[in-house]
Specification:
Strand content: 15-25%
Number of helices: 11
Bound molecules: zinc ion
C-alpha cells in the first residue's frame, strides 16, 4: 500500500512530519490534555522542526506538553534543546539512555565520535521499557527495542495497531548495528527485537526515516534477511556503518574536499577505530574506498575536487 494511503490509517489527532535522512520523522500526538511530540530531528534542522510544529497540521501557537524520544541518536534528539526552550516542555527519554545523556557521553551516543552535532539538553523524565503512556488520547506501550541502539524504545498502540518504530525497523532495513567485536549483544538483540515486532499485530508502521507504510510483514522479512547477511559476515556491518555515517556526515556538511578526506577519516573516532580494528587500510585508501563505494551506489557524487550527496 502506498505511503499516502498508509497515512490514512492514522487517527486524526496524529500527524507525521516525514523528514529526510538527516532528521528523523517527527510524530505529533494532539490532545486537549496536552500535545506530545515523538523525536525532534537533527540540530541544524531545529528551526524547520519548530516551523513545521507551528503550522496548521502542527499545533499552531499552542505549546507542546511533552517531547519524548525513541532513542537518543543525533537525528532524533537534535531539536530537543530548541523545542524545550521554545515550548517550555519537559523531555522524556528511554530509561536506559538517560545516564548517557546526563553525562553527555559523545562516544556511546555517537555524537562527536561520529562527527555529529547535538545541542545539549536536559532529561526531565525517563520512559521505562514496558511502561504505558496516554499521548494524543491513545494508549502507547513503550517496548524495549535494542539492537541499532541498545537503549531504544518503540511505541505501540494496540487499538489502531500503530507502531512508531524509530530506527529499529524501516521499510527497507533498520539503523546500522555495531559489529560483535564492539558490542557482542547488538546483533542478537537486533534479531530478538525483530522477532518481538513480528509478534505484534501491526497495521501501520511509522519509521524513524521514510514514509509510513503498511506492509510490516514484508519489511520484517527484509530486515531478517539483512540480519542474516550480517550474521554471515560481520565485516558487512562495519562497511555498512561506515558508509551510512559518511553519507550522514556529508548531508550535514553538504560538500567535502576530497583532499581532506584522509585526515577526516583519521580524525573522527568511529572511522579511525573501525579501520584499526577491522580494515587496517592507510587513511587515504579508506577515504578512496568510501568515495568509490558510495559513488557506485549513487549516494554521493564528485563535484570538481569535492564530494556532495547525490
Ligand atoms: Zn538511530
Amino acid at each position: 500500500m502506498s505511503s499516502a494511503a498508509a497515512a490514512g490509517f492514522l487517527p486524526p489527532q496524529m500527524h507525521v512530519f516525514v523528514r529526510d535522512w538527516l532528521s528523523s520523522n517527527n510524530v505529533l500526538l494532539k490532545s486537549r490534555d496536552g500535545h506530545v511530540l515523538i523525536d525532534s530531528g537533527y540540530t541544524t534542522h531545529a528551526p524547520l522542526t519548530l516551523a513545521l510544529l507551528a503550522t496548521d497540521r502542527g499545533i499552531g501557537r499552542e505549546p507542546l506538553a511533552w517531547l519524548v524520544n525513541t532513542h537518543c541518536h543525533s537525528d532524533h534528539v537534535g531539536g530537543n534543546a530548541a523545542i524545550a526552550r521554545h515550548h517550555g516542555c519537559p523531555i522524556a527519554v528511554p530509561e536506559a539512555e538517560a545516564p548517557l545523556v546526563e553525562r553527555w557521553d559523545g562516544k556511546a551516543l555517537l555524537y562527536d565520535y561520529c562527527d555529529q552535532q547535538v545541542e545539549r539538553f536536559a532529561v526531565d523524565s525517563v520512559l521505562p521499557a514496558g511502561s504505558t503512556h496516554v499521548w494524543g488520547d491513545l494508549e502507547w506501550a513503550a517496548l524495549a527495542a535494542p539492537g541499532h541502539d541498545m537503549g531504544a524504545l518503540v511505541f505501540y498502540n494496540a487499538e489502531h495497531r500503530i507502531l512508531v518504530s524509530g530506527d529499529a525497523l524501516w521499510e527497507h532495513g533498520f539503523g546500522f548495528v555495531m559489529p560483535p567485536q564492539i558490542d557482542i549483544a547488538a546483533l542478537p538483540a537486533t534479531r530478538a527485537t525483530l522477532e518481538m515486532l513480528a509478534r505484534l499485530r501491526i497495521r501501520v508502521v511509522i519509521p524513524g526515516h521514510g514514509e509510513p507504510f503498511t506492509d510490516a510483514a514484508v519489511a520484517l522479512d527484509r530486515a531478517f534477511r539483512r540480519v542474516a547477511s550480517f550474521e554471515a559476515d560481520p565485516l558487512r556491518m562495519v562497511r555498512y556503518a561506515m558508509k551510512a555515517l559518511f553519507v550522514f556526515g556529508l548531508l550535514e556538511r553538504r560538500r567535502m574536499a576530497i583532499a581532506d578526506l584522509p585526515a577526516y577519516v583519521d580524525r573522527i573516532g568511529i572511522y579511525r577505530d573501525f579501520n584499526a580494528l577491522f580494515l587496517q587500510m592507510p587513511a587515504a585508501h579508506l577515504a578512496a574506498w568510501l568515495v568509490a563505494e558510495l559513488e557506485k551506489v549513487g549516494a554521493i557524487r564528485r563535484d570538481g575536487d569535492h564530494v556532495v550527496p547525490d
